[in-house]
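job 3f2a | input accepted
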Amino acid sequence: MSAEATSPGAPIRRRGRPRIDLRRLGRVALLGPVSRDRLPDAIGHVAEAHRAHHPDADLSILHRAYVLAESSHRGQMRKSGEPYITHPLAVTLILAQLGAETTTLTASLLHDTVEDTDVTLDQVREQFGKEVCYLVDGVTKLEKVDYGAAAEPETFRKMLVATGDDVRVMSIKLADRLHNMRTLGVMRPEKQARIAKVTRDVLIPLAERLGVQALKTELEDLVFAILHPEEYERTRALIAAATARTDGSGATPQDPLAVIAENVTTVLREAGIPAEVLIRPRHFVSVHRVGVKRGELRGTDFGRLLVLVGEDADCYAVLGELHTCFTPVISEFKDFIAAPKFNLYQSLHTAVVGEDGAVAEVLIRTHRMHKVAEAGVIALGNPYAADGGAGPQTAEPADGERADPTRPGWLSRLLAWQQSAPDPDTFWTTLRADLAQDREITVFRTDGGTLGLPAGASCVDAAYAQYGVEAHTCIGARVNGRLATLGTVLSDGDTVQLLLAEDAASGPSPDWLDHARTPAARIAITGWLDTHPEDTRSPHGGRPAQAGPQQPPQGHTRPGPRPPEPLAGPAATPDGAANAVVDRPDATVRLAGCCTPAPPDAVTGFVVRGGAVTVHRLECAAVTRMRSVGRMPVGVSWGDDTECRVTLVAESFGRPRLLADLTEAIATADVAIISATVEPPSEQRVRHTYTLQLPDPAALPALMRAMRDVPGVYDVSRARRPVTVA
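job 3f2a | predicted structure (726 res):
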């Protein structure tokens, strides 16, 4: 067992508030030798750490859980040569130092018993209750699959499902991984590297998103030591040299960070603001990143100042005094109190310049904020207890669901899309991509609801977050009341109104994947495109619609039949299928998006997947390709209905009011705009794609002439798009 788990330092207290010291213990594990000369004082260290956070906690259940765990694991040894009971004890101690409630600690002591011993879930339920049994079962399920290369995706899929039901399951798993990483040295180098990579790619981002910074930073350092040993050794030497210049606990007067800390303390004392000013050492990875960023480390780069106060208002009072009495570095100011991070983190960040020009970064937060910043969801207690306290809560909500107030929006999204992932590899790839997002935004819907999205999300992501697969019919959006393309990147606080096409059979364009940032959107779009290869569209097209009118889903916003301005987004596909008669009774008829046929074009048809007939113009390249692969054509003729839908592409030079003039020319011809898209200008040229409903196809030549007559437009043509032969 590692030194930090067997001989933990006593927690530092002030005004009865425990100070989490896990970071220092992790530093000991990295800088100092591992001591294995004795076992821990059984459950005593856990009980002491737990009482520091929960003075009134009933420790009897912990003692009973320890007795069961110790007797069950008796005779089992870890690969490091230690009795196995040292592992659940160390995991439980980590959680106790972070302030976990009694139920979590009880489950942590027992988390390997069902997996590795003869203890059953029924025994756990009988002796410790339903809640402890639920947590033990959740952690056990995560261990059912080995960490092989092919098993990792399914392992983490199960982890997310279990976490979605109870975030405490993930808390135990993270602490379990931390202790395993601390003692990873007994394994082969290649296995160390594999486990470290999984920890880096998934568990560290999950720790970040759950707000458990104390676990996240130590895991980062342990992974850093395994995957980048040379950079780690250089950083270790720099930190050791900096530590040698101090007295070990604080810093000598020559330390510029200590000098600034003393000056800050004086300023706040004279201002009458009760505050505690501490020097917070950076962890190894943080020091390394600062060194890479700046090239050369300064004396103040090995730590930051942490100012702890009692109330939220005191945070801003401290900020005002610092910016008044010191020279602030304005670019470093961030307010995460007014706008907390997605992982519950709250603090004011700033930087000030000392008398000798040294720059010190400063974190300002309340004691409560500090606890949550270090422990995240672990600091919130039992999310299912009526009072949020330490006791187990077995009563379920009236609707039978496990309502979890600590579940962040990102976790709800992960749980939603993991069920739609078609295979483990897709799940694994999208999981890592989503976890790489380090910030979340909130956008408002016009109906008063909100959508939580990762930073960088677009209107495409908002559409799938709000409507699911019905977002396939989205043709545009209004952002803060203004028309916007589906690729528009959203900002925190934007108001979004999604516009859906009347044709419920239309589908997404492949170029939507260029704008999709969320796994839910990417999986839905990819799934639709894979199942409709014959209707794959270019950036300007849409899926051909089935014949017959379609009713809009209730509650969706639809554009009017003839909007006064172009609707941004992908164009809907031509839909004159009801006027196309094919030589296959009862077959669904679609007009191809690649050539947009309309009366009186010479046309032919081909049977595609699902038995539908897709109608093409005879000169369409797809017809040649279909015939070359042996597809038999189907006879097609036009019916008596004169109305038709057609897609036109206008090429123009960019100028002011061009869109207004084009739409006015179309409206003057008594033609309805179904949808439209405008590509970003390229070399002062702009490409517009319009899907139009014509009362009579004979009016098409005159309409195209009218559009060409608009100043700046140099060509108008029928849409021609490449297709994939199904």
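job 3f2a | The mean pLDDT is 76.
job 3f2a | closed
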